[in-house]
Design a protein that fits this description.
heterodimer, A: alpha+beta, 3 strands, 63% helix, rod-shaped, B: mainly beta, Pnp Oxidase, Chain A
Chain lengths: 67, 162
C-alpha cells in the first residue's frame, strides 16, 4: 500500500510503499500521518499545560487578594 | 625550473572506505545537506566485490572542421552514461535492496569515494530504478542487479557537507 513518508530532519516527503517505509524508518522517516498525529498530541499537551498554568496563576492571584 | 610534481597521493583500497548511499530526496542535488545525506540508507556493505557498473560519464565529440585546414578539429559533444547498475546480496528473508528499491523508484545514488568525511568529494547521481534482475546462478551467493537510469547530469566532485 502506498504511504506518504516524511522525514522530520529534512522536511521532505516522498510516496513509497509500506515495505519501503519499514526500511526507511531506520534513517528517521515516518508516515506523514504519524508525524501529524504526534504534532497534534504535542500541541494538545502544550495547550493543557498552558491552561493548568493559567489556573494556578488565577488561584495564586485570588489567594493574594484574600490576604 | 622544471614543473613541480603533484603532491604524492595517499593511496587506498576502496573496500571498507568507499560509501554508497541511496538518498530518496535531495532538494538541490548539486548541494546536498548533511540532514539529507543522513536521511538516506547506506548500501555499501551489501555490494559484492566488483558489483558496480557505470556511474561514470562518457563524452563524445563533434567534428568542427573548416576549409582553412585539412585538420578536423573537434568540439565537446554530448555526455552520456551507459549502463549504471549495482549488485546487492539477497536476504533469505527477502528484506533487502529489492524492498528498498522497487522498479521506478526515484532518488539519488551518492558515491563517497574516500568515505563519508566532511570536506571530501562525492558524486550525486539522480536516478530512477529500471529493473531488478536476480542472478539465476545457483553456485554463487544469491544476489540481484539493480539497474538505474540516470535522470539528470550527475553532480561530480561535490564537497561532502559537515
Amino acid at each position: 500500500m502506498a504511504v506518504l513518508a516524511y522525514h522530520p530532519g529534512t522536511g521532505h516527503s516522498v510516496l513509497v510503499d509500506d515495505a519501503q517505509l519499514a526500511l526507511m524508518r531506520r534513517a528517521g522517516w515516518m508516515a506523514r500521518s504519524e508525524h501529524d498525529e504526534h504534532e497534534a498530541a504535542k500541541a494538545a499537551a502544550a495547550e493543557a499545560a498552558a491552561q493548568a498554568a493559567a489556573k494556578t496563576d488565577a488561584k495564586a492571584a485570588k489567594a493574594a487578594g484574600n490576604a | 625550473m622544471p614543473a613541480p610534481p603533484l603532491s604524492p597521493t595517499r593511496r587506498y583500497l576502496p573496500p571498507g572506505i568507499r560509501k554508497c548511499y541511496f538518498v530518496f530526496v535531495i532538494a538541490n542535488y548539486l548541494l546536498p545537506t548533511r540532514a539529507e545525506l543522513n536521511s538516506g540508507l547506506d548500501v555499501s556493505a551489501e555490494i559484492p566485490t566488483g558489483g558496480v557498473t557505470g556511474f561514470s560519464l562518457q563524452g563524445s565529440t563533434a567534428d568542427a572542421g573548416d576549409m582553412g585546414s585539412k585538420f578536423t578539429s573537434t568540439v565537446a559533444g554530448r555526455l552520456t552514461s551507459g549502463t549504471n547498475s549495482i549488485d546487492s546480496y539477497l536476504d533469505s528473508g527477502d528484506v533487502d535492496v529489492r524492498t528498498l528499491l522497487p522498479r521506478l523508484t526515484t532518488g539519488n545514488v551518492v558515491w563517497m569515494w574516500a568515505g563519508d568525511i566532511p570536506g571530501g568529494l562525492m558524486d550525486v547521481w539522480p536516478v530512477q530504478v529500471l529493473t531488478q534482475a536476480i542472478d539465476p546462478n545457483t553456485e554463487d551467493v544469491a544476489k540481484v542487479t539493480i539497474q538505474f537510469a540516470a535522470t539528470r547530469v550527475p553532480a561530480i566532485n561535490v564537497r561532502i557537507p559537515a
